[in-house]
UniProtKB/TrEMBL annotation:
It comes from the Eukaryota. This is Integrase catalytic domain-containing protein. Residues 36-195 form the Integrase catalytic domain. Pfam families: rve (PF00665). GO terms for molecular function: nucleic acid binding. One of its GO terms (biological process) is DNA integration.
Length: 332
């Protein structure tokens, strides 16, 4: 049976104009994290960062950064453009030096979805996983590396008057040799089992060096694995497939809706969904914070609710042709 409260709530939640234009709370995603690799260079995370048109050196404006999530080792190369042609550096330099990764993570830029890279990935059996659109935190590890590199370049350039291209090797040396605050060992030590030789580094020089390095490598690996697997966040409940959600409008004019019409959920993870944009077209991965729950558009229409009210509770329908009922004190 319909009550006045039920009718009001239904009309408010199904009003198309209200749902598109009113501010709505997005879904809460909670703290997320990718599965932790158990060996170095099993996965890599790549991204471009813009150094600024006013900081262009030798016609190079961008920095292509690659990070190993296990050791936190950073590789970076200056580039002139942000295209798939520059991404070939991964196949020319990174893979021959460190081996073939199982997974490459990146954003949804066209430079990372080009045919040349797809061909290499298919030949080597590499899986390419793209992050959620409009959500830079999906590539949080490499975004942090970008920020750290720029901070280091700022200080080196200020002290030495070098260009950022010339200062990049110095910053890379610094990132690889300094112990990580979380792991308490340097990326170089994780990869090689020994500290990077520096001016004040004391290195063992007796015949047992290889045995010491092997033992140290085992200790370092166990330490890194223990820390990376510690305090893993609880996985939130994913959104149900075939449910409906509103998608957030990112480039918004004041006179336009804040939310796009409800879409049906096609695929889902703990933090992202893919939506059916049309009967045959899927969206990219969309983060939870960029959509909001919606009612099934195939539910009751306003006319159906009115018809149901007329048949189930006709006494609630006001008919202006009928005289209003009189109270007892109003009767003669």
């Amino acid at each position: 049976m319909w009550t006045a409260k039920d009718i009001t709530k239904y009309f408010v939640t199904t009003c198309e104009t209200c749902n598109q234009f009113n501010p709505r709370a997005a879904m809460k995603a909670g703290l997320g994290g990718f599965p932790v690799p158990d060996v170095p260079w099993k996965e890599i995370v790549v991204d471009f960062t813009d150094m600024g048109a006013d900081k262009r050196v030798e016609r190079k404006q961008y920095l292509l950064v690659c990070v190993d999530p296990f050791s936190k080792w950073v590789e970076a190369v200056p580039t002139k453009t942000k295209t798939g042609k520059e991404v070939k550096w991964l196949t020319r330099e990174v893979i021959p030096q460190f081996g073939v990764p199982e997974i490459i993570r990146s954003d949804n830029g066209t430079h990372f979805s080009n045919d040349d890279l797809r061909l290499v990935e298919r030949m080597f059996g590499i899986k390419h996983k793209f992050g959620a659109v409009y959500h830079a935190a999906s590539q949080g590890l490499v975004e942090h590396a970008n920020r750290t590199i720029k901070e280091g370049l700022t200080k080196v350039c200020a002290d030495t008057n070098l260009t950022w291209v010339e200062a990049l090797p110095i910053v890379s040396f610094n990132l690889r040799s300094i112990p990580n605050a979380t792991l308490n060992v340097s990326p170089h030590e994780i990869l090689t089992g020994r500290k990077m030789p520096c001016p004040l580094t004391v290195m063992p020089r007796d015949s047992t060096l290889l045995l010491l390095q092997h033992a140290n490598m085992n200790d370092v690996s166990e330490q890194v694995i223990e820390i990376l697997h510690r305090d893993q966040p609880e996985e939130p409940t994913p959104v149900a497939v075939d449910s409906w959600v509103y998608q957030k409008v990112h480039k918004l004019h004041w006179s336009e809706p804040r939310w796009k019409d409800p879409y049906k959920v096609a695929e889902t993870t703990t933090h992202c969904v893919k939506l059916w944009l049309t009967e045959n077209m899927l969206s990219n991965w969309i983060h939870k914070t960029h959509y909001s729950p919606a009612e099934d558009p195939a539910g009751w229409t306003v006319n159906e609710v009115r018809a149901d009210l007329r048949t189930s509770v006709p006494e609630l329908i006001y008919n202006p042709a009928e005289p209003e009922p009189q109270l007892e004190e109003d009767l003669p």
